[in-house]
Specification:
The complex is a heterodimer of chains A (525) and B (336).
Chain A: H1 2-23, E1 26-36, E2 43-48, E3 53-58, E4 63-73, H2 76-85, E5 86-92, E6 96-103, E7 112-122, E8 126-131, E9 136-140, E10 146-150, E11 154-158, E12 164-168, E13 173-176, E14 185-189, E15 194-198, E16 204-209, E17 215-217, E18 221-226, E19 229-234, E20 241-246, E21 251-255, E22 264-265, H3 266-273, E23 280-283, E24 298-305, E25 309-313, E26 316-323, E27 327-331, E28 336-341, E29 345-349, E30 354-359, E31 363-367, E32 372-377, E33 381-385, E34 390-395, E35 399-403, E36 408-413, E37 417-421, E38 426-430, E39 439-443, E40 448-452, E41 458-466, E42 474-476, E43 481-488, E44 491-500, E45 505-512, E46 516-520
Chain B: H1 4-9, H2 11-15, H3 21-33, H4 35-53, H5 61-70, H6 90-109, H7 122-127, E1 159-166, E2 176-182, H8 194-205, H9 211-225, H10 233-245, H11 249-261, H12 267-279, H13 283-298, H14 304-315, H15 321-332
Antiparallel strand pairs in B: 1-2
The chains are: A mainly beta (525), B mainly alpha (336).
Chain lengths: 525, 336
């Protein structure tokens, strides 16, 4: 009995082991090497969307391609499909060699494949690599032109003395050279960073651009910062251009083998010298005493600021719960979210949405692009956007609203409104308790809907300019308006004038290519 | 059928609304009774619709002028005031109402039990292929309804205009009255009901509507169609069309904002987003287009063209910095 238990137990273990083996992913690895003749000065083109590429220049003639192709799948049929649909094509002639990985599978395919290349070429060959999702692309010891483009994965160039063009979306770029560059180098990454190491005595015309990052160097540099870009001379003039663009990352231009301690921020140096000569930067070989450079772009998030809050940055996002004082924010771009502010608010943004909750003081806010939302403006304010919806939930003070493209919505205004939009609708609702208030609203493409309380009195002057000959143009729930129609500049002009509610402040409305509706709140239509 | 050929010849004129009323009615009646012609008509209408969606390119002014000169046409502004179609005579509409009321009264008077509306032409419908079975109610420019399928009681005071009497064949016992009727119609149904989808798309795309109506229609779409169970590619396509074509920037902002929230994205939708990001003059539209493309990038649905557009946008020096950073952030979300 005991032995039969033991046997059945062993059988169960064996079955489980078999089952787990069967469930384990399958993989297939294929390795091969091919040699081809290649002329001196020939060019090599490599396209590999799914793996690493290593290209090494050598003094030998000919080209040697070493390939490792790995396919993994949950079961044999998918594995077979993956092997068939991951093709390696070796094409070209002695002048131009083309190596391509062609993957015909879809996102829904169960298999995954990866192809890695190690290629030896004559040093004088031109090398062009197009990657996509590999971990790295490395090109070393090449004396001719090199171009590399990828989406993800780091790119390293070491000992490359020809002209270089690198373009990556998300990868870091490393350009390492013991020698002085003699050919133009252009390195671009959007979300990665850039590290350049060259001989300390290199002469370079350095152009660097970054929105969020900093420019740092331990080489002697003098130049000028303009917006997000720096242009300067490294050592002596007359060197080749070194163009480095890392939009979201930092850029390092370093002396090969130089001291890490001597690395300084160009932006910080520029900020220090601003008072003396605006924007001019000079970094000497001896490190100057600098404040910690920290981050150039930032996200400031805090629940409470006791006192005033003032900040200026080239790029920054602000999320502040409460400020017990006034606020002054200037940002080249970024989101601004403010909760309660007891004092005045001034916000200037080069682009990005503004979300302002409860502002007790005077409000002045502008963004070059994006939506503006103000929940409560106790003293009213001036708001504008270069494009986006501009919305005020409640305002107790005079409002001045400008939109370069988009709707303007005011849910409840207890004071005057002056609103205009280039293309968009205006939906303005006055506080129902108001007896009169001045309103000016203008749209050059869109409609105006003005909702007034039953007791609201005003002197209305509403004009619609439209291409529709038979358009009614102006609708009003209030009696007492006189409507005239005429032709103006080839369009039909409808103008309604008169007093409503016994008269009051002037209400001027102008809508082009749209209609005007003066509605009475609480009146069912 | 022998009459099919002349009927089909009048299809192009029917499409362009150039047929006289009598021939139009006859043609519609034939379409409803002939399966082959109905199929032909549907195909032609679909082709016409697709042609209407193609972008209209304005020829350069100089080329246009040269062409007109060569064919001997001189462009000049007409001094003639266009003649507007006058509404039908009041007595005619009254006569129509009397005819309907009298007919209805006669019908009611001869019934000994409550009136029940029978399904129209059941026997005929049974013989027709399923694909061309007429719907119980269709929204169309014009439609022909058998009098015996109409409830004889006229409810409310519908605005009946442009009444015309049609006696296509004096030798049979059939006559017809055609008129325009304006009435308030409420169409109810599930959001994913094809009729409802088409109606929504029609309201959104109809530029004759005031833009608050289009804006509101987009709000309703956002409310009803962000639920994946109601997803329909036609809604996404309609929004994409609004995004591409609407001249009202407020409406375009709403369209792209809603497109971003829809669970389904077609190739056409992606293309509209890419075009908006590249070319729309309004920065808010571009910001929202980037957001939508970022969503696609994160789910691995962004194709190479989309990735290239994001790269170009991130590197575009004269673009708003916020749009550039959003494009960069979207690129950072790309999944293999």
């Amino acid at each position: 009995m005991k032995s039969s238990f033991r046997i059945s137990g062993l059988t169960a273990i064996a079955l489980l082991a078999c089952a787990s083996l069967a469930a384990a992913p399958l993989s297939h690895t294929e390795r091969f090497v091919r040699d081809f003749p290649m002329e001196i000065g020939g060019s090599l083109w490599i396209e590999n969307p799914i793996g690493n590429v290593d290209v090494v220049g050598s003094d030998q003639l000919g080209i040697s391609v070493s390939v490792v192709k790995v396919v993994a799948a949950p079961e044999a049929a998918s594995l077979k499909e993956g092997r068939e649909q991951t093709q390696i094509l070796l094409e070209g002639d002695n002048k131009t060699r083309v190596i391509r990985t062609v993957v015909t599978g879809t996102r829904e395919s169960k298999w995954k494949s990866n192809v890695a290349y190690v290629i030896r070429v004559p040093r004088a060959s031109q090398v062009h690599v197009k990657g996509n999702m590999g971990e790295h692309i490395k090109v070393s010891n090449i004396a001719s032109t090199v171009t590399v483009k990828n989406t993800n994965g780091d790119i390293t160039l070491e000992g490359v003395s020809g002209a270089v063009t690198i373009d990556s979306a998300n990868g870091d770029i490393h350009f390492l050279s013991d020698a002085k560059p003699t050919q133009p180098v252009q390195l671009t990454t959007i979300n990665g960073g850039i590290e350049v190491q060259v001989a300390g005595e290199s002469n370079l015309d350095w152009i660097a651009q970054s929105i969020k990052g900093d420019f740092r160097t331990n080489l002697p540099v003098r130049g000028r910062i303009s917006g997000q870009a720096f242009r300067g001379i490294v050592n002596q003039p007359g060197g080749p251009s070194m163009t480095t663009t890392a939009l979201m990352g930092n850029i390092f231009l370093l002396s090969r083998g130089g001291s890490q301690d001597e690395i300084r921020s160009v932006r910080a140096a520029a900020a220090q010298r601003t008072a003396q000569s605006p924007n001019q930067v000079r970094i000497s070989p001896v490190p100057a005493q600098q404040p910690p450079t920290g981050t150039y772009s930032e996200t400031i998030q805090t629940p409470l600021v006791q006192g005033n809050f003032m900040y200026a940055t080239n790029y920054g996002n602000f999320h502040i719960g409460e400020v017990r004082g006034f606020v002054s924010i200037q940002t080249g771009a970024g989101q601004v979210t403010l909760g309660t502010v007891t004092g005045d608010v001034s916000v200037r943004s080069g682009g990005g949405p503004l979300d302002l909750s409860d502002i007790f003081g005077n409000l002045s806010a502008r963004t070059e692009a994006g939506e503006v939302l103000v929940r409560s403006a106790r003293k009213g304010g001036e708001l504008s956007t270069g494009g986006g919806t501009l919305r005020v939930i409640y305002s107790a003070g005079p409002l001045s609203l400008h939109n370069s493209g988009g709707d303007i919505v005011v849910n409840q205004a207890a004071s005057s409104i002056d609103a205009d939009t280039r293309s968009g609708d205006l939906l303005l609702t006055m506080d129902p308790r108001l007896k009169t208030q001045h309103v000016t609203a203008k749209t050059t493409k869109g409609n105006i809907i003005l909702n007034l309380g039953a007791r609201f009195g005003a002197e209305i002057d509403a004009t619609v300019l439209t291409t529709q000959e038979d358009a009614v143009g102006i609708h009003s729930d209030f009696p007492g308006l006189t409507v005239k129609r005429d032709q103006f500049n080839g369009k039909t002009r409808v103008r309604a004038t008169g007093k409503i509610g016994g008269g009051g402040e002037k209400v001027e409305l102008f809508a082009e290519d749209g209609e005007i509706q003066i509605g009475q709140q609480g009146l069912s239509r | 059928m022998a009459e099919c050929s002349p009927m089909r010849e009048s299809f192009p004129l029917l499409l362009t609304e150039s047929l006289d009323a009598q021939t139009r009615e006859l043609t519609h009646q034939h379409i409803e009774s002939c399966a082959e012609c109905a199929e032909e008509w549907q195909g032609m209408k679909e082709a016409w619709r697709m042609m209407a969606e193609l972008p209209e390119l304005e020829p350069p002014a100089r080329a246009r002028q040269r062409f007109l000169t060569e064919i001997g046409v001189v462009e000049k502004k007409s001094n003639v005031i266009p003649f507007h179609r006058r509404p039908a005579f009041k007595w005619l509409s009254q006569a129509a109402a009397v005819v309907i009321l009298a007919g209805g009264s006669y019908f009611v008077g001869h019934q000994s039990r409550p009136i029940r509306i029978q399904p129209t032409g059941v026997a005929n419908v049974d013989r027709m292929p399923a694909a061309i079975q007429p719907a119980a109610f269709s929204i169309a420019e014009t439609r022909t309804v058998n009098a015996n399928s109409i409830n004889p009681n006229i409810e409310g005071r519908p605005d009946i205009q442009n009444v015309q009497f049609v006696d296509a064949n004096p030798h049979d016992d059939q006559i017809a009255l055609s008129f325009d009727v304006t009435q308030h119609v409420t169409v109810t149904g599930a959001p994913n009901d094809k009729s409802m989808v088409r109606l929504m798309a029609y309201v959104m795309e109809n530029e004759d509507q005031m833009s608050p109506n289009r804006s509101r229609a987009i709000d309703w779409v956002k409310q009803a169609y962000t639920d994946p169970t109601n997803a329909d590619p036609e809604i996404a396509q309609a929004l994409a069309k609004v995004l591409r074509n609407d001249t009202h920037e407020g409406v375009r902002i709403k369209a792209v904002d809603t497109l971003k929230t829809l669970p389904t994205m077609t190739g056409d939708t992606r293309e509209a987003l890419i075009t908006a990001l590249k070319n729309d003059p309004n920065p808010a539209v571009r910001i929202k287009a980037v957001d939508a493309l970022a969503k696609l990038a994160a789910s691995g649905q962004l194709d190479a063209a989309g990735v290239d557009t994001l790269r170009q946008k991130a590197m575009q020096d004269d673009e708003n910095v916020y749009v550039r950073t959003k494009a960069a952030e979207a690129l950072g979300k790309i999944q293999p």
